[in-house]
Specification:
The chain is of the alpha/beta class. β3, α4 and β4 form a beta-alpha-beta unit. The longest helix is centred in the first third of the chain and has 15 residues. It is globular, with a radius of gyration of 19 Å. The two termini are about 15 Å apart.
Length: about 280
């Protein structure tokens, strides 16, 4: 779920996803739509279409809430908006904190981003308290690199390890070394933007389009699948959790039809060979 959708669209998308069989929902304070997601979840719980324990709800601590007293406040705000008693996982959205305040990306009068002096190591202690108090089942990280994770794992007095690192991942950004490292440490990987976020507002005309890549379309045609389904399957076969974003009911359903085919070793190798370190998500944007 992201903040680009018009009001009402997100709620209907969540309801359609639950009806289609989705149970993992990825949220964040910065998407500015958690109350709408919460309305949809509540409606489906009241309909008894799904039970809370069968849902897997993830949200993220935004970077302006790095100061210790703000961490719990931010988590409670998310829980209130989502109308839930607990989160399954709460992530630190980015390893870099930003100056506390109402702006999502605080800047000075020259346009420079204002950073926080509080580090993610300080934040982690407050995150651990959320687990101990039962507000969240587990905690994790997002957009952390190998060195940042190493620092966290070596933190004196570490009480709760991160259970997942949510990172951008697709054939143009395969993240092989980071994934291998995380898996070696028992940290699961959640892959976001698996389709290359084609609807992102900051896209440039010259940016590559994964969904239109001829080789990917060729593999898709061989399996009688769409390019999107191949891209999702590619990550599943790498033992990753995958979170494609859509508000279109037909595509939401289509993105789930990925468990009835298998990519060959040769096809997996071909898709891995496309890596060009192409990112679409940056904190500054």
């Amino acid at each position: 779920m992201s903040d680009e959708e018009i009001v009402g669209q997100v709620k209907e998308a969540v309801k359609a996803a639950i009806d289609a069989g989705y149970r993992h929902f990825d949220c964040a304070y910065s998407y500015q739509n958690e109350s709408e997601v919460g309305e949809a979840i509540q409606e489906k719980l009241q309909e008894k279409a799904v039970a809370r324990e069968d849902l897997f709800i993830v949200s993220k601590l935004w970077s302006t809430f790095f100061e210790k007293p703000l961490v719990k406040e931010a988590c409670r705000k998310t829980l209130k908006d989502l109308k839930l008693d607990y989160l399954d996982i709460y992530l630190i959205h980015w390893p870099q904190g930003l100056q506390a305040g109402k702006e999502i990306i605080p800047k000075d009068d020259k346009g420079n981003v204002l950073l926080s002096k509080t580090t993610f190591l300080d934040v982690w202690e407050a995150m651990e308290e959320l687990v101990d108090e039962g507000l969240v089942k587990a905690i994790g990280i997002s957009n952390f690199n190998h060195f940042q994770i190493e620092r966290l794992l070596n933190k004196p007095g570490l009480k709760h390890k991160p259970v997942t690192n949510q990172i951008e991942c697709r054939p143009y950004l395969t993240q092989e070394k980071l994934i291998q490292y995380c898996h070696s440490k028992g940290i699961a990987i959640t892959a976001y933007s698996p389709l290359g976020s084609p609807d992102r507002p900051w896209a440039k005309p010259e940016d590559p389009s994964l969904l239109e890549d001829p080789k990917i379309k060729q593999i898709a045609a061989k399996h009688n699948k769409t390019a999107a389904q191949v891209l999702i399957r590619f990550l599943i076969q790498r033992n990753l959790a995958v979170i494609p974003k859509s508000v279109t009911p037909a595509r939401i359903a289509e993105n789930l039809q990925v468990f009835d085919f298998q990519l060959s070793d040769e096809e997996m190798a071909t898709l891995l060979s496309f890596s060009r370190n192409w990112r679409v998500c940056c904190l500054s944007e």
